[in-house]
Amino acid sequence: MPSLAHVWRTYVWFLPKSEVGWVTKFVALAISAIYMNGEGRCFVAVETLGKSGIGRRAAGQHLEKLEDAGLLRRTERPGSSSAHSLSPII
User: Fold this and answer.
1) What residue segments make up the domains of the chain, in order of their start?
2) Burial code of 38-77, b = ≥16 C-beta within 10 A, e = fewer?
3) What is the CATH number of domain 4-86?
Protein backbone atom coordinates (compact mmCIF):
# COMPACT_ATOMS: atom_id res chain seq x y z
CA MET A 1 0.00 0.00 0.00
CA PRO A 2 1.43 3.45 -0.90
CA SER A 3 2.36 5.81 1.92
CA LEU A 4 0.29 8.87 2.72
CA ALA A 5 3.15 11.05 1.42
CA HIS A 6 3.09 9.19 -1.92
CA VAL A 7 -0.68 9.64 -2.31
CA TRP A 8 -0.33 13.34 -1.44
CA ARG A 9 2.51 13.78 -3.98
CA THR A 10 0.34 12.25 -6.70
CA TYR A 11 -2.55 14.55 -5.77
CA VAL A 12 -0.31 17.65 -5.84
CA TRP A 13 1.23 16.62 -9.17
CA PHE A 14 -2.19 16.69 -10.86
CA LEU A 15 -3.44 19.95 -9.32
CA PRO A 16 -4.48 22.48 -11.95
CA LYS A 17 -2.04 25.37 -12.42
CA SER A 18 -4.76 27.75 -11.21
CA GLU A 19 -4.69 26.20 -7.71
CA VAL A 20 -0.96 26.58 -7.05
CA GLY A 21 1.80 27.82 -9.33
CA TRP A 22 4.40 25.48 -10.74
CA VAL A 23 7.18 26.62 -8.35
CA THR A 24 4.89 26.07 -5.35
CA LYS A 25 4.01 22.65 -6.74
CA PHE A 26 7.68 21.70 -7.04
CA VAL A 27 8.39 22.93 -3.50
CA ALA A 28 5.57 20.65 -2.33
CA LEU A 29 6.94 17.72 -4.28
CA ALA A 30 10.47 18.33 -2.98
CA ILE A 31 9.50 18.48 0.68
CA SER A 32 7.29 15.42 0.35
CA ALA A 33 9.97 13.40 -1.46
CA ILE A 34 12.94 14.43 0.68
CA TYR A 35 11.73 15.45 4.13
CA MET A 36 8.35 13.82 4.70
CA ASN A 37 7.93 10.58 6.65
CA GLY A 38 5.36 7.88 5.89
CA GLU A 39 2.79 9.49 8.20
CA GLY A 40 2.87 12.74 6.23
CA ARG A 41 4.93 14.83 8.69
CA CYS A 42 8.10 16.70 7.92
CA PHE A 43 10.52 18.78 9.90
CA VAL A 44 12.44 21.12 7.64
CA ALA A 45 13.60 24.66 8.24
CA VAL A 46 12.73 27.38 5.75
CA GLU A 47 16.47 28.13 5.60
CA THR A 48 17.11 24.56 4.43
CA LEU A 49 14.49 24.83 1.69
CA GLY A 50 15.94 28.19 0.69
CA LYS A 51 19.34 26.60 0.07
CA SER A 52 17.78 24.69 -2.84
CA GLY A 53 18.28 27.81 -4.92
CA ILE A 54 14.99 29.65 -4.44
CA GLY A 55 16.07 31.56 -1.32
CA ARG A 56 14.73 31.63 2.22
CA ARG A 57 12.09 34.29 1.56
CA ALA A 58 10.65 32.52 -1.49
CA ALA A 59 10.65 29.17 0.35
CA GLY A 60 8.58 30.70 3.15
CA GLN A 61 6.18 32.25 0.64
CA HIS A 62 5.64 28.93 -1.13
CA LEU A 63 5.00 27.14 2.16
CA GLU A 64 2.39 29.80 2.97
CA LYS A 65 0.75 29.25 -0.43
CA LEU A 66 0.54 25.52 0.31
CA GLU A 67 -1.05 26.29 3.67
CA ASP A 68 -3.50 28.74 2.06
CA ALA A 69 -4.44 26.07 -0.50
CA GLY A 70 -5.19 23.69 2.38
CA LEU A 71 -2.41 21.26 1.44
CA LEU A 72 -0.16 21.74 4.49
CA ARG A 73 -0.69 22.52 8.16
CA ARG A 74 2.04 24.20 10.17
CA THR A 75 2.69 23.49 13.84
CA GLU A 76 5.00 25.96 15.55
CA ARG A 77 7.76 24.41 17.64
CA PRO A 78 9.41 27.05 19.85
CA GLY A 79 13.19 27.02 19.50
CA SER A 80 13.08 24.76 16.45
CA SER A 81 11.82 24.65 12.89
CA SER A 82 8.09 24.39 12.34
CA ALA A 83 6.60 20.99 11.76
CA HIS A 84 4.51 20.62 8.65
CA SER A 85 1.95 17.92 8.08
CA LEU A 86 -0.29 17.01 5.22
CA SER A 87 -3.83 18.23 5.19
CA PRO A 88 -6.44 15.63 4.34
CA ILE A 89 -7.08 15.61 0.59
CA ILE A 90 -10.12 13.37 0.52
Assistant:
1) 4-86
2) eebbbbbebeebeeeebeeebbebbbebbeeeebbbeeee
3) 1.10.10.10
Is residue 52 within 8 Å of residue 88, measured between CB atoms? no
**Which pLDDT tens digit goes with each residue over 17-70?**
777 888 888 888 888 888 887 777 777 778 888 888 889 899 889 889 988 888
pLDDT of residue 88: 57
CA-to-CA separations, 79 to 17, 34, 71, in angstroms, rounded: 35, 23, 25
DSSP state letter for 17: T
Stated pTM of the model = 0.77
